[in-house]
Amino acid sequence: MEINRDLAEFIGVLLGNGHISRKYNRIKITLNFIDDLAYLNYIKNLVIKLFKVKPIIKKRKNENAIDLFIFNQKIINILINKIGLMKSPKWNRAIIPSSALRYDKEVIRGYFDTDGCLSIVNNNGVRYPRIEMKVMPSPMQNQFLSILNKYGFKFGAYQIGKGKIRVQINGKRELKKWDKIIGSNNQKNISRINSFLNENVAESGLPRNFRYRFEPLTVPNID
């Protein structure tokens, strides 16, 4: 199976909130039931497009979490044996396969959309955006930092215990760069990016072309 941009993004999703188990013969991706329903639908369609299988979606009882499952040994073998992903647990082992580094922007996008966040920080009355991603101890850490350096992002990487790091990218200029280079396919992130940039651009009187604003959303059937 040849790696393309869609598969590279799916690899990023798996590295973020994915779980590959040979024992249970399954791939599981966990998302927030409240904030990520539209993105769940996006991933479901991505799986169908890539692998020609329809995933199973189940909401967890008494939790704001929802899981997408793929029960397919052939797909698991492709991801591990041919693509080069590590099976779970990912701690100390996760790595971006060398074959996927050709599409490193898409990998980072998939990771950010599942395991990253964009927050708006109020610093003495001045609002500024902050992109954050936490990365577990693994070869993936240095790969992430190298990719961010490659595209000229200004960022900080901070140890937060047990070998885990928090990658932090601050400011409107860096957010604009992120939107242009990496982007997002998670409506939650798209809305926050557009909201902040629109707020700031409106103050300067300059127009902005929103790439995603009018895209229709389809909420998945989880029955």
How does this model look, in words?
With 223 residues, this protein is of the alpha+beta class. It folds into 2 domains: 5-103, Endonuclease I-creI; 115-204, Endonuclease I-creI, CATH 3.10.28.10. Helices cover 40% and strands 23% of the residues. The protein has 7 helices and 8 strands; from the N terminus they run αββαββααββαββαα. The protein has helices spanning 5-17, 37-51, 73-83, 104-115, 140-150, 172-181, 187-204; strands spanning 18-21, 26-32, 56-59, 65-70, 116-123, 126-135, 156-161, 164-170. The strands form 2 sheets. Strands 1-2-4-3 form a 4-stranded antiparallel sheet. Strand 1 and strand 2 (26-32) form a beta hairpin. Helix 1 (5-17) packs parallel to helix 4. The protein is globular and about 55 Å long. The chain starts with a helix and ends in a 19-residue tail after the last helix. The model is unreliable at 201-223 (pLDDT under 50).
In short:
This protein has 7 helices and 8 strands. The protein is α+β, with helices and mostly antiparallel strands. The protein folds into 2 domains: about 5-105, Homing endonucleases (Endonuclease I-creI, Roll), CATH 3.10.28.10; about 115-205, Homing endonucleases (Endonuclease I-creI, Roll).
Which descriptors apply to this entry?
223 residues; alpha+beta; Endonuclease I-creI; 2 domains; four-stranded antiparallel beta sheet; 7 helices; disordered C terminus
Task: Describe how the helices and strands are arranged.
Elements: H1 5-17, E1 18-21, E2 26-32, H2 37-51, E3 56-59, E4 65-70, H3 73-83, H4 104-115, E5 116-123, E6 126-135, H5 140-150, E7 156-161, E8 164-170, H6 172-181, H7 187-204
Antiparallel strand pairs: 1-2, 2-4, 3-4, 5-6, 6-8, 7-8
Helix pairs in contact: 1-4
